[in-house]
Design a protein that fits this description.
With 673 residues, this protein is of the alpha+beta class. The chain is built from 13 helices and 24 strands. It folds into 2 domains: 556 residues, Porin; 93 residues.
Length: 673
Amino acid sequence: MNNKPASGRVHLLRTLGAGFLVSMLLATPAQAIQFEFKDGTITGSWDTTLSWGNAWRVESRDPAIIGIANGGTAFGVNADDGNLNYDTGTISNIFKVVSEVEMVYENIGAFVRGTYFYDTENENGGPRDRTPLSQQALDRVGSDIRLLDAYTWINFDVSDMPAEIRAGQQVLSWGESTFIQNSINTINPIDVSAIRTPGGELREALIPVPMISGNIGLTDALSMEAFYQLRWEPTIPDPTGTYFSGSDIGGPGAEFVMLGFGGVPEGNFLDVRRQTTPRPDDQGQFGINFRYYSEIFGGTDLGFYFVNYHSRLPIASGRTTDFQGYGNAWAVGTGATCLSGGCIPLGVPAGDRDAAIAAAVARGQGEIIGKGGSVDAAVTAELTATATFIVDALLAGAIGAADVPNFVTDSLAEGSGYYTEYPEDIKLYGVSFNTTIGDTALQGEYSFRQDVPLQVDDLEVLFAALAPLDDFGRTVFGTFGQLGDFDVEENIQGYRRLDVSQMQFTATQIYPRRFGADQLVILGEVGFNWVHDMPSKDVLRFDGPGTFISGNADLAATGTVHSPTAVGVIEDASHFADDFSWGYRLVGALRYNSVYKGINLAPSIAWNHDVSGVSPGPGGNFLEDRKAYTLGLTATYQSAWEAQLKFTNFFGAERYNLVNDRDFISLVVKYAF
């Protein structure tokens, strides 16, 4: 029985997955170091891979996905830090060690894997062009040492039925998906940065989690496998500011979201701060599957699955302003009004600094109390500071009356917040098959997910968080927003739970001796995604990549929602998530053995195409018309040395494809022993 974690049939990330699988198909396995103790009663193996990899950006930045304030044309600055941080040239220069040890004594054993990496470009390559990488980001792309798998296992019989139990930090792969994510294989989260590094391997990207798992052969044709997770772990998206990052608000190191729709540069004005992420329960994640071998088509493996799990992917939710922010906003508006003479009936002369400040503080206090809040010395001190700032700025001519609404919004934004969360108890039901017809290997699966949290358009969440602005005469957010009206200190759930079906099929064909090569491998996978009972986009829009402005015509028409850069502009409904989407992946590779003194060569091509529809997030599979291809050449020597040269080109889907200007070349050299 093979006790190492399975590395195949696992979904890969859409941008790099096809090229990665080519490497997996063509790589020559290294010879592990074998050892034994006590006259062979204890045996073991030790595998180590040393690698160096370099990657270079080869395409200039596309202004269409750079915010206006940063020199581009996009109506948003919340997705361009990674793009701005890396000019053409080196984006990674990484040295890495991956080592694993397995030891076996009779029917028990242990397996441990760890890795260390150091990327000189990211760790000590100097300040980035746009935004310094946070420590959280550096831990993912700079340098780190990590324990990956660490578990023990025991094999035994139960009434002549072979069984195995594993306990510890492990990877468990279910289903038949090869490329397309959101499949049955959902047990382990993914470290996205690990798979993107030059030479990244699946064993580094799948995050082992503490669990107890077991399997038993019930009959010669039927087996059962089950697991129970002991700790929840999330998928780790690209950290904010790293090369492939397509979001500045949700990844590791993200701190705020900017208002202003591309027209306001990042700073401490018109931003909403990130709040603490609530952690899901560690308990309540488990699953069971049955595998049955049928004589259909000359032999077919059938699988039946159930998994209950907590979301691995982050959802963005919001919170309206606290009482202090609400009072500050009233202090700003009242101070400006009184200074200009709007409070004369209240006995405040126009231009009277001290009287305007006093009136502003009193109004702020009254509004807080009117909302059910309390006022103490600290609250009053901040109200006074806010009123003093706005009045003095107006008197000095530093700002004008037209700027005051932005300062009102800023005060509310300071008291508001957003946070990422991971909803619990998603149920997955699935079936799969794996067979061979003639010389073609076929596999496929269908999964039904119940109560999947799908991300609502993030702008609707943001507008809902600003709904208290309705109290200031800007009655558009609560009135026209799709999520409804919200008062002070209320949470805005950024998702809706819907049921989702996914179906995918994979075919693999291996041809001997084609085009002068010893072997030709062709692999294709097609996937389809359905959201059941998805609301009309007129009722509720779900988020789509690159939708930086509102799709709500009523909101945009008011002229008060978007900044001057985007007044009256709305996002076309076709770019928000659809209830149906599909796409496919293709891989072709040739293998030439012993081309020169034991050197094997393998040229390859991989093609990704999202054909129709926009999958809802987080982590949606398809974005209509998005495409990518990877050209590669792999050389191996004596089952120990390997070199890879690859070029990847991203294109299609216009400005909604947030990596369409991130083309790169990578070179990797590995030595395994």
